[in-house]
Alpha-ketoglutarate-dependent dioxygenase AlkB
Amino acid sequence: MQSQYSLFADEAVQLVHDAEGGIRYHPACVPEEVVAGWFAALLPLVPWRSERRPMYDRIVDVPRLMASVALNDPERPACIDAALAAVQAVAPAPYTRAGLNLYRDGRDSVAMHNDRIHDLAPGQPIAILSLGAARDMLIKPKRGGSAQRVRLAPGSVLVMSHAAQRTHDHGIPKCSAPLGPRISLAFRVRGFRVPAFHRRAAESGGRRAALFQQADRRHQQRAHLRPVARIQLQQRYAAVGGHVGRGIRQSS
Ligand SMILES: O=C(O)CCC(=O)C(=O)O
Ligand SMILES: [Mn+2]
């Protein structure tokens, strides 16, 4: 069935190419007055949280507020479904969660990063719908080279492939001009890849299957470590000259 929003979906701008669709920008997927309504509904409704993260030898505030909504949560705001329909029109996928970011003004930002992919379904896109003030996003190849700057207009959708998280970083830089608030809705498909070794072990039954389940649980726990637990782990590992994962990444 055609979504009402596919009527608005215009020419996409391809920013990065890869075998999974790369990174592309759809400038006007939802009319501005519609996203203004969603913005007004979400701002007071969402339980925004602030986070703190380690940065070098300090613990700093993450410069934006965040929230997360499961797309099967019966309590989810109605406009999340409408936003999902708009995203499905340009980037169809079995999305499971929406990560929300609130940039209160131009001082809020997200540092250059790639989204953590260990718990995202391989091959599935990440689609970001913008509401509120327009903000620039920088997209930079990890191997070096110059960054592309794309203005994320309200009602636009930026689609990034899973594969692009390995080749490119993205971020929303701070802006010195006076700016109103912006909300981004990042739709993702959660579900991590089970390594072939573990899959075979699980299928074999008996003791190996139990070992697999143990490894699986450990993996899930690591994936959902709260920031504070990560900080504690980092400090512990730092004391013995190690590190946790691939370092702290700012993403969902
Ligand atoms: O706000 C945006 O457009 C980007 C957000 C982002 O990169 C993230 O949540 O991982
Ligand atoms: Mn991101």
Remarks:
- Confidence is low (pLDDT under 50) at residues 223-252.
- The chain has six helices and 13 strands.
- The chain has two domains: 4-188, 196-239.
- The first strand starts at residue 13 and ends at 16.
